[in-house]
Give the backbone structure.
Amino acid sequence: MAIYKFNGFTPVIHPSAFVHPQANVTGDVIIGQDVYIGPGCVLRGDWGRIVIEDGCNVQENCTVHMFPGVTVTLHKGAHIGHGAIVHGASVGENCLVGMNAVLMDEVVVEKECIIGALCFVPQKMHIPERSVVVGNPAKIVKEVTDEMIEWKTEGTKIYQGLPKELHESLEEVEPLTEIESNRPLHKTNYAPRKK
């Protein structure tokens, strides 16, 4: 794994968390229980601290960074979608940050919010609890319903189980040259939210 001590700070990673070998974790980064960090992620705690609380997932190609002296916190159960950037922001408990969204410095996202894919959240924006946020620049468009948060929470539970599965079964292999006749099918226990 690409885990680096920097300026006296060694990352702290709970044994149940899974940090993909192709992710990069540098410096003052604290990763909690059952956290998933996907390949291509860069968690750069060189100028400040990154705290990723229990049950979070930071999916493929995300970047987490900050200005000097700032702490970035992803609170319990935060779900950071593929390619998102969190720069000097705080993401509340059980929030969803959509794919390729950008959260700028001093943004505060309170708990159970949904930030849409490709959303640009400008510096210092404060997003109240249970807000749905979309657009560039970001706008609060409605309140998160119970059904929406149940769907989000169910998806996050799947990611919370992924680190254990990866610890148990991920292995580097040579590829097959043809498909096996008994190749298994994948589960269909979660799907995109119906509008």
